[in-house]
User: Fold these one by one.
Assistant:
Number 1:
Amino acid sequence: MHLQARFLDAIQVLRRARQLEPHDYFANLLLGIDLLRTGRDADALPMLQLAARTKPDEEIPEGYIGEAEASLEHYGKAAEAYQDAVRRGHGSEQAVEAWADFALERFRQVGESLRGSSAGESTVRRLQETASKPASLLVCDGPIQVLERRLANKPKGNESTAFYLNSAYKLSVCYAVEAGKAAADLQKSAEDVAAFDRLRGDVLLRLKGDPAAAQDEYVKAIALRPGDPALLERLAEAQLNAGNSEGARQSALAALAADSHRRGALRTLISLAMSNRDYDQALPRLEQLNIEAPGDLTVHVELGRALEQTGKAAEALQHFQSALAAGYPDEKGSLHALKARVLRELGREEEAAKASAEARRLSDAFQAHSENRGNEKVNANQ
């Protein structure tokens, strides 16, 4: 059942096995993996940690602990677990590959999190320029766990914002360095050619911003591993970024047919549906992703948009308010404007007026800030 991806059935059997042998390595490991695959990351973690303690020289539990911690947004702990897996496995291909996957995904996530502000966009451009350089020229100003802790503290003023952006930049460079090292290690010793092709594709997609070249690497890997959902998921993302919408849709659907819990494939299909204003198609996938990644504020916003467009204004408002309360960056005021529109649909005019006023304030502040930055650049060039 576990190998056939029948996770819910397997969980019941493994729970009974664990009742008989609470410290059995395989019962805890497999139960943790299946809980992880069904989006129950917090429940999975104690099982995986017990498996890791039972066999302290085994790398596999640490890799899954890293995945669980990352899903729970405990990124510093996730990095530590992946590095422990590399240490326990003495640099095994599987452990190095998993560490590189995490590093590249964090590089992407940090970049995405910065795109809500003009200063963040500037940091992203700086990162892209840095990441395009040869890996030998990049220097990590770590350690990663310390930088992750700094990044977890949300900025509350201009100075803290600058500190936050600088920490995000340093952290992303460290992840780029680690991904580059992992790629070099795999190139020297990889017996799994598909894994190396996939990692090359990841580097091209995440660090170099070349989705067309990344597609070629993923296609080569899929030829060696037909039907692999992780590879199909990555191919879909590369195709989406390269403008091949239909190819991305087909690849994402194939990934989900093999594993219905592939979050990247869900994101690709959501992006396509929302771009086409096919909100009925996007809605069930957004609801699934919201269950499996409840801390993703962008999912809350997109789910709110889809709900509002399908006539569910009250539910949409809940998601908009949750995102704003959790710190969603609304520098331009667009989310407050959406909130105001929904409030008007619900007949709550006084609250709508307040939300509209806040949207205008944020928009005006953003425009004034952008004009000031523009003037500063002009003066600096004179």
Number 2:
Amino acid sequence: MVLLHRVTNAFQRLGQAWPCRAVWIGLAGLWCCDVAQADRPPAAVSQPDAGRERVVFDVELADPVSPSTPPRVHRVVQFRDQNGFPVGYALRIATPICFENERKVLDVTMHWNAVGCYERLEWPREKPLTKKNLVPFTAEDYAKLDSILKDQDSILATHSLAFLAKPVKDAQGIDGLSGATPLTVQESVIQDAAYETWVMWRWANGKIVPKLCHLTEQSCTPAYLKQLLYSQDRRYVDFALNYAIAHHPADAQFLEDVFCVLERGDREHVVLSLRFLKGFMKDKEPLHARLIESYGRMKSMSSPLILDFLAAERDLPRTTLEGLTGHLDRLPYFQVNQILRLLEQRNFFTKKTESDVVRLLDGNDFFVARRACEHLQKQNLGSETQEKINAFRQRYRDRL
């Protein structure tokens, strides 16, 4: 069971009292590091969470090195902004590293954002990270480690510690501390520190991630969800959309916010937005009208998903198909071609669509106009439209 604790202001003042020392806040289990000298690793000294409200949770977590052992309770610090909304988490990890004749303690504090994505690593000034024979990490090692820990799809997710000890034919690049590192994972670990890399990656991207997300879900008020939906960080938008789909499937207060995400988001956000909107707006015609309205404002890489969504409907209302052609003169060739192809697949042609398509013959884009001409030639046309087609073909006879 997760128990909630409040960190008192006294601990915050304690962290401010020694601005040039590495101070451990006992209840929070957090190292607050000072500004390092030029020869110190820069990653060890960032303080972006200084001054934020801190709330501490007891969270049960198993050691990734020994997952079969009973989980231990760890103190996870949640940072909150001025509105009381979660913005990140921190956990101090102190785990022994014992291999061959080396004995040391890996003592670091990991930070995640509000949706459980690893962000950075901190450690006491007097205890920098070390490799084989206690050789300190270089600046390049720290940079590579940061990149490795941020890779949620790393090969380390599917390989055990035992795999790291398999021998390789080529003796170059062997990790002395963790055994001979297989060639397949050498680029995914720090040379001479494969063991430490594996352990830290499992902490950063392992069982703690869903637990952090669950803690954030406890703060998912409508105001917080709206804030996440408008975030510039796509991971926050993903989280908010999935939460809204699961917990607010028919909540009108998020309708306009989701349409906003639909229009400015990437392809994954469009898919999630459509899932929410389809569940909320059961009446097809109003939903389709809003989607068509948003269609022209979307990114060119994402807007085709709207047509794919509409094309998947077995029976599209007349108003939907005619609504699409009403936007043709404001769209580039690819989208125009998609819409005309949809009309052709449905064998749909009315006076309204004829009027909308024939306007394209007078546009500035020859390729759009030619596609419109091809579409119209497949239909039963009135004399006026036929005359316009003949005039178009005569005007561009050298290009047709």
